[in-house]
Amino acid sequence: MDAMPINELRSISTFAKAAELGSLRRAAAAQGMTPQAASQALAQLEQHLGVRLFHRTTRSLSLTDEGRQFLEAALPAVAGLHRALEITRRTKDQIAGPLRIVGPRSVFTPILWSLLDEFCRRHPLVQPDVELDDRLRNWVEDRVDVGFRIGMSPAEGVVARKLFPLPLIVCAAPAYLQRHGAPETLADLANHRCSAFRNSGTGKILPWYVQVDGSLVDLPVVPAICLNDETIETQAVLAGHVIGLLSGVAATAYIRSGHLVPLLTKNIAERSSVFIYYGSRASQPTRVRAFIDLAIEKLADNPNYTLTPAELSAAEKSGRKKYLGKR
Q1: pLDDT in tens, 71-92
Q2: What is the CATH classification number for the domain harbouring 220?
Q3: Is residue 100 part of a domain?
Q4: 194 found inside a domain
Q5: 227 and 242 fall within a common domain
Q6: What is the domain range of residue 237?
Q7: What residues does 209 pair with on adjacent strands?
Q8: ∠105-258-182 over CA atoms, to 5°?
Q9: Residue 270 to residues 109, 164, 173, 175, 252: CA-CA distances in angstroms?
Q10: pTM of the prediction?
């Protein structure tokens, strides 16, 4: 027998309701159908099965032997289907259940934990399933509910919303400046100990991305230390071992506290931004919408992750004066 199309599933429900109520007209009303549509649905089912299911008169409706056998066999499945539909409708509006989140390992780890911590406190019945990886992900194959990316998502049919810009800032600790001095120009970096970042997905050492006369330039550096984790790279810079090119996320709090000094701030590049991405909001479970709303509330244009050009310029001037004696 061929697979049953959806209109015959409706026919079985109509048959079961008519048997329960003893009236096709009342079954139609209970299911929000016209009597004509209910009669047609029942006729389709009888034709599909090749048997009559009811004895009909103008006043009464009673099951045939075949109808009674079919009802006994079909009722558990019909009841199970209605339970499944009701559970799905109910859980769609509950803030509970699994939540699949993906994002980049570099840059995003400290941000995501703060967000997850608050979300789990608000919605303890949600079970986050988080995977951080710097490689590009396949949205459909990985069954992603919410993703974060540095840059726009390449996936079709995915909504992307910008959260905040991600400038790349040349930074050094006071200990490094006191020991090695500071570069005055980009060319001077060749005479300094620099860190470099190795992309986990490609294995390549990334150049430093800087801005020159309004254009983005790739500046190769000879690494004194090479890492594939920005948290450790930031620690190497804080310890005074190297000058580093750090994201605004990693560097902002340390610059504001004076633990890092921004350098060559006229050459800071805003190469990309942090985006949140997700599927159509119309079909999302409530738990997914709740997480997206919290992420936008907490992260969109958050000053904790960005410094204004004026702040950067002032911090560089202050640091050079304090640690290098330059005005």
Answers
A1: 888 888 887 887 777 766 666 5
A2: 3.40.190.10
A3: no
A4: yes
A5: yes
A6: 165-272+304-324
A7: 218
A8: 90
A9: 20, 11, 22, 27, 14
A10: 0.68
